[in-house]
Amino acid sequence: MERLCSRKQIEQLFAEGKSVSAFPFRMQYLLIEFSDDIPSKVLFSIPKKRFKRAVKRNLIRRRAKEAFRLNKQLLYQNIPEGSMCLLAFIYVDNQIHSYESIQNGILKAFEKLHEKELRIDS
């Protein structure tokens, strides 16, 4: 998985990026010009404020990462050549959802991103 761990890119994402809501996530995204062969970098955030126990946060994070891994080709085929998409998925609900509803949220976020941003560029 292409992890977003650069502090500079994370700050740029939250300062300049746009947001899309797809329950149970809020997705922050930013398209940047980049000449790397990685089409996107992703960050998953499950707030400690909502889930005090690390076991629960890790469960949600594992489910979200797996849903992203299995469906990332839907995102990659819509990213323009020479661009990179920085993504941050922030979990916004107070309950643990099943894998299916987490996957539906990620797919819904991809659809909204495609409608809002990527259709203009391609």
Protein architecture, described:
There is one protein chain. Strands 1-2-4-3 form a 4-stranded mixed β-sheet, sandwiched between helices. It has one domain (7-117): Ribosomal Protein S5, domain 2, CATH 3.30.230.10. The protein has helices at residues 7-16, 54-76, 99-121, and strands spanning 18-22, 25-33, 40-45, 83-91. Helix 2 packs parallel to helix 3 (99-121). By secondary structure, the chain is α+β, with helices and mostly antiparallel strands. It contains 3 helices and 4 strands; from the N terminus they run αβββαβα. It starts with 6 loop residues before the first helix and ends with a helix. It is globular, with a radius of gyration of 14 Å.
